[in-house]
Structure formats: C-alpha cells, structure tokens
Amino acid sequence: MTKIDHTIEIKKILNDVLGLGDTAQCDGIGYSITRKYSELDSVAIVTIILALEKNFSISIKDDEISAKTFDTLGALVNFEEN
Fold first, then answer.
1. What DSSP string runs through 38-66?
2. Which of left, alpha, beta for 21 (phi over 0: left; psi -120 to 50: alpha)?
3. Domain extents in the chain
4. Structural fold of domain 3-81
C-alpha cells in the first residue's frame, strides 16, 4: 500500500467514525483533525484506533498514542505507517 492509499483509507475511517459521510473535508495531510471536529472525543479516538488496527493489521499500544497523533491527517498517516 502506498502513502496515498493509506491516506485515503484513514480518511474513510475518520468519515465513518465521526459520522461525516461523504461531506468530510479532510483534504491534504496538513488538515487539522482536532481543531475541525468536535466529534473527536475519547470514544471516537478509541474507535479510530480499533479501526486502524483492524484495517492495517497492526497493534497499537496505549503508550504509543498522544494528542499529536490526532493533530493532523498527516500525523495520523505517519503514525500508522511507523
């Protein structure tokens, strides 16, 4: 999977979890997730993490996650890729 593929998949996850449908404007890797969506609460973050683990067959430990992980779309993509 390329970085573009990962970005598209993560955008889909965000759209689904946050209930944004096809109207989400998560354009560009510098797009701020935390400032744009009030829907991003602790339950949404856990749901996003579970979706990332499932879709990308990865395991994410609690100590790997910080607020910066969810700051921008690019930060979330980079986190998933590492």
1. TT--HHHHHHHHHHHHHHHT----GGG--
2. left
3. 3-81
4. 1.10.1200
Closest C-alpha among 77, 78, 66 to residue 26: 77
43 Cβ contact partners less than 8 Å away, ≥ 6 residues apart = none
DSSP 8-state class, residue 15: H
Give the whole-angstrom CA distance, residue 27 versus residue 8: 10
Per-position pLDDT tens, the chain of length 82:
677 788 888 888 888 887 776 655 555 556 677 767 777 788 888 999 999 999 999 999 989 888 888 888 888 888 888 8
Q: Which of 17, 16, 3 has the alpha carbon at shortest distance from 77?
A: 3
> Structure pTM?
0.79
